[in-house]
Amino acid sequence: MATRNASRGVLNVSEIPTLVEEYARRSLHRDSGAVYPPSAALNRKLSVLRDDITKISADAIVNAANNRLAGGAGVNGAIQAAAGPQLLEESLALNGCDTGDAKITKGYMLPARHVIHVVGPMYYQHDKKEANRLLESCYLRGLQVAVENGIKTIAFPSISTGIFGFPIREASPIAINTVRQFLQSAEGNTIERVIFVLFGREDEQVYRTTIPKYFHQSE
Ligand code: ADP
User: Fold this and answer.
1) Given the CA of residue 159, which atom of ligand 1 is nearest to it?
2) Which residue has a Cα nearest atom 26 of ligand 1?
3) Using CA positions, which residue lies closest to atom 13 of ligand 1?
4) Total domain count for the chain?
5) What residue's CA is closest to ligand 1, atom 9?
6) How does pLDDT run across 150-195, given as a tens digit for each residue?
7) Which residues form the domain of 70?
8) Can you tell me which atom of ligand 1 is nearest the CA of 197?
9) Among 60, 72, 139, 172, fewest CB within 10 Å belongs to which?
């Protein structure tokens, strides 16, 4: 189990196991069919855990925001509450954000230095193909904005699968595949760790079943 700074409940990236460690201790199971060749180097760059994303001390955490970059419920509400009012002040001055795009602010009182705000699609507002494209764009733009800002460690929640109604079984392969493609591209070379942070036990289980299809066990 990951240990943590007991006083604030903060979890440092160095305390979060990577896929290499998870496979070794069998908390993650090999999948028989693999989409990509196995890569220990990439498995060292990915983590999955069930936690509150506001506790993660990464260079950036990602917020599932809305088009106005205003306050809201869900993970957005939790991030706003933990960061303090300056986060909302800065994000409201950014003139909103398109669906599928990303914008960055400071993290203020969060243990993370930055927040990257992405706006996921509302599942029932688009046809399936467009919803999938917009969700993929959220992960890609989030990662691109991270690289542009020198961010090396980044934690993602499960975008659009709460209030925005995207079924997590459809969303998780898109999230995981987009991260895989980015990490193995030249553009994603400087990213050292991507952490998928799930809030519910079932959501975590869906990710733990899907990840080995895209990040196959390497030895
Ligand atoms: P969206 O509007 O994009 O659907 P939500 O905030 O409603 O965003 O939900 C996105 C996901 O974030 C959901 O799976 C929800 O369970 C999860 N979530 C809510 N609070 C937190 C938190 N503090 N840390 C991590 N994930 C969270």
Assistant:
1) 3
2) 199
3) 162
4) 1
5) 162
6) 999 999 999 999 999 999 999 999 999 999 999 999 999 999 999 9
7) 11-214
8) 25
9) 72
